[in-house]
Amino acid sequence: MAFEPKSADFEVKRAKPLSKDTIPVVTTIANNDGAISRVISMNVTPCIEQVVASTGSAQIDGKINIKILVEKVEGGYDCIEGTTNFTAHVMNNEINQDSEIFATAHNLGVSNIQASEQAVTFTANVLVKSVILFDEKVKYLEDIPTAEQKKDTINYTSIIAATNQEFELEIESDLPQSVSKILCVDSKVVLNKADAGNDVVSLSGEVYTNILYLTADEQPKLRNQRLTQNFTHELLANNVVNTDIITATVQNCATNYELQGELNSAKSTIILKDIVKTNIFVRQNKSIDVVADAFCPKYFLNNEVASFTSQNVANTDLSFEKIDGSIILGEDSPRIDRVLAVCAGNVIIKDTEIVDNELNVSGILNCNIVYILDDEEGTTQSVFAEIPFELNIKKDGFYDNGLMKLSIVPKDIEARNKKSKEIDVIAELAVEITALENKTAAILQSVVLGEKRPENQNSIGLYIIPQAQDLWEVSKALNVSGSIISAQNPDLQFPITSPQRVVVYRERKL
Q1: E strands along 144-267, which residues?
Q2: Is the pLDDT reported for residue 132 higher than 90?
Q3: Residue 111 confidence (pLDDT) above 90
């Protein structure tokens, strides 16, 4: 008996989270232009520079861009800038020298701020997340010509491209009055959508910018301007088609600005250039036909079966949720005249739970609020605010599988003094939810022909089947081809939920 199963290799590329570490980075930024009286606000932006993989480990190197608004001893304001490096180490047996590893860095806030006359020292808390791309390989059977076989179609998602790209966004805006000096620019890029085209990836989103500047008056005043602008950007991506699934994260790693126009003019023009880094993963839906099970009426078969589990993107959703909270400065605090600006916001997700098609999220919004006191000097102060929040996002059918990925980014933050010593905070958060689904299928990897089955001498067989989902279960149980069972039992309907009679007629040779 000829018995030649046809086999093939099955390969899927996946992304697997490696680690999530918070790294405290002690930083000192020196100032060479006058003694520092105190720190008003800080803008700390971390980004990943490179990832170097070796056997069993990887080193992630990054850089923190720092801009600190300070008040000087002799009066007036200034912005001191600097950078510092940080390193994260990842240990994992799956890593080798050729591994593709991608990482992102986020600021979780600063602590231990100390200002001396010539420098500012603080601890930046940087959250570093890393993922590894790995190939999952398995051998499967495509066909067994001389056996009864059950074939299944496996639908799966494979990463066909992954890249880290950097691009520049340029924004031009007129400030409402003449400007003598730009003190601090806090810019945040929020990605709303990523689409696949033919050989391109299209990104669209919004840039939120907060500018602190001094007016060009005889007695310069500290002013604040908030800008919002949409952006679109296209990146080259070979072999990408418009049906592919794009997953992207963006990081604003630097903001450069240029002030144009005469200082005595009615207005000044500022040109902002945001340097944005992206991690882009392109996934493609694919399918293969495999042999899931087999039997032979004349011979026993030794089957080697493996299970394959694919995690596919079932659905994605981007929504914008509003939260609010307040800060009470305390009885000993001076009265507030007005809130000037909100700088450097970020979100920490504390807990998630899915109950009755509703996602319950608790977290903390961190932000730095700059305000002016109600005194003769108009003194500028700042406070680091922690606003706890809870979100309840209901979407019917969206969370059925209980698997998801969640990302929350502050889209816009406003603050105003409700009372003389209380500040209200209203924020809009961009909430991106990716619902995942796990599908497990049986894959027949090899079949070996065994001993010959004992021959049934009865020309007619009568069987009572208690229950069965499909014809395959019945035919395998009776060791008879499904086509023969269907032809001889035309009234048989599936699924069988109560005992039913199955008749099998066997051809006998006289």
Answers
A1: 148-175, 179-196, 200-215, 222-236, 245-260
A2: yes
A3: no
Looking from the CA of 434 toward its CB, the CA atoms found within 13 Å total: 13
Specify whether the CB–CB gap between 270 and 182 falls below 8 A.
Answer: yes
Instruction: Kindly state whether residue 432 falls inside one of the protein's structural domains.
Output: no
> Domain ends where: 243, 264, 291?
291
- 393 domain-assigned: no
Two structure tokens written together for 50: 């490179």
Residue 418 token pair: 């409700």
CB atoms within 10 A of CB 315: 16
Tell me if the bond preceding 495 is cis, omega within 30° of 0. yes
Residue 476, both tokens: 């395998």
What pLDDT, on the 0 to 100 scale, is given for residue 473?
A: 86
H or E element, residue 474: helix 471-478
Please give the tally of structural domains in the chain. Answer: 2
* Residue 397 to residue 394: CA distance in whole angstroms: 9
Q: pLDDT at position 508, please?
A: 58
User: For 393-405, what is the mean pLDDT?
Assistant: 78
For residue 61, name the pLDDT band (cuts at 50, 70, 90).
Answer: very high
199: left (phi over 0), alpha (psi -120 to 50) or beta: left
Decide if 263 contacts 216 (C-beta within 8 A).
Answer: yes
Query: CB of 344 within 8 A of CB of 64?
Result: no
DSSP 232-292: EEEEE-TT--TTSEEEEEEEEEEEEEEEES-TTSS-EEEEEEEEEEEEEEEEEEEEEEEEE
Closest Cα partner for 158 from 239, 97, 53, 96? Answer: 239
Are the CB atoms for 56 and 76 separated by under 8 Å?
A: no
Query: What residue numbers bound the domain in which 204 lies?
Result: 147-291
H or E element that contains 478: helix 471-478
Residue 474 backbone class (left: φ over 0; alpha: ψ -120 to 50; beta: rest): alpha
Q: Is residue 492 part of a domain?
A: yes
Of the candidates 241, 269, 291, which is a domain's last residue?
291
Mean residue pLDDT across the chain: 86
CATH assignment at residue 491 = 3.10.350
Over residues 363-377, mean pLDDT = 86
Nearest to 204 by CA among 169, 177, 175, 172: 169
| 368 domain-assigned | no
Count other C-beta atoms under 10 Å from residue 9's C-beta: 8
The residue-averaged pLDDT of 438-466 equals 83
pLDDT in tens, 174-188: 887 778 888 888 888
Counting DSSP H helices and E strands in the chain, the numbers are 2, 20
Residue 476's φ and ψ, nearest 5 degrees, are -70, -40
Q: Specify which residues 171 forms β-bridges with.
A: 272
Q: How many CB atoms lie within 10 A of CB 384?
A: 16
CA-to-CA separations, 302 to 8, 19, 296, 315, 332, in angstroms, rounded? 19, 41, 10, 40, 82
